[in-house]
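quick one before i forget lol
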Amino acid sequence: MAEDKFDVIKAIEAADNRVAADRRAFAIRIALSIVVLALLIASRWGAAREQSFEALFAPLDKQAEEYLERTLTKTAFTYAGVRATHAIVSMFKGTQLHPPFVTLSVGEALSPVLDVIEKLSDALALAIVSLGAQRILMEVGSQIGLSIFVSVGAIILLFAIWIVKFQKPLAYWGARLLALGLVVRLIIPLTAFGASMIAERFLQAKYEESIADMEFQRSSLGENILPGEETGFMEKIKNWASMEALSTKVDAFKERANALVKSFITLFSLFVFETIIFPIISLWLLTRLFFAFTPRKD
C-alpha cells in the first residue's frame, strides 16, 4: 500500500511538472510571438517602420547618400576633365615640326596617351553607372528588404513558434529570410560607408594629386613645342636653328605625355577600385557573413 501511495504521489508530481513545463513553454511562445509580431509590424507598416528601422538606420543612410552623391560628382568632374584632355591630345596628335629642311612628327608620342584616355573614359563611364545603380539599389533595398523579406520571414517564424511538427524547417527558412532582408536593406549603405572610410583615409589625397597633375600636364602639354605666330622662313631659322634645342623641346613634350599616362593610370586604378572592385568585395563578404550566421539545415 505504501508503495502504491508513493507511485501515486510521483505520478501527481510528474503531471504537475508537465503542466508547469507546458505553461512555461506556452509563456515562452507567447513572448516570442509578441517579439516576432512587433518585428512584423515594424517591417511592414510605414509609420511603425519609420519610427523603428528607418530611424535606426537613418545615420548610416545619410552618410551613404552623401558619399554616393559626392563620388558621383567627383567621377563626373573627372570624366569631363579626361574628355577635355582627349580633345587637346587629339589636336596635338597630328602636330609636325618644320625646322629648315626637316619635318618631325611629335604627335606619335601621344598614341599611348590616347589609348589610356579611352580606357579611363570607359572605366569612368562604368563607375558612373555603378554609382547610379547603387543609389537605385539603396532605395529598392530599403523597401523590399524590410517590407518583403523581413516581414515574410517574421510570418514564417510565427508559424514555427506554434506548429511544432514543422518547427525546424519553418524556423530555418524564417531566420534566413529575416537575415536576408537585413542584408538587402543594409548592403549598399554598409558598402558606401566602408568605401567612404577607405576613400577619405587612403584614396582622397592620391586622387587630388592625380587630378592636379593631369590638369597641369594638360595645360602645359604644348608649351614651347609649337611655333608661334611668326612662321616665316627666317623666323623658323631663329626658332629651330639649334637641333639641340629642338631635341630638348621634343623630349620635354614626351615627358609631359608620359606624365599624363601615369596620372591617367593612377586615376584608372583609384576609380575602378573604389566604385567597382570594393563594392564587389563588400557584396562577397556580406554574403559570406549571411551564410555563416544564419542557421543551417540539419
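fyi The chain has a mean pLDDT of 77.
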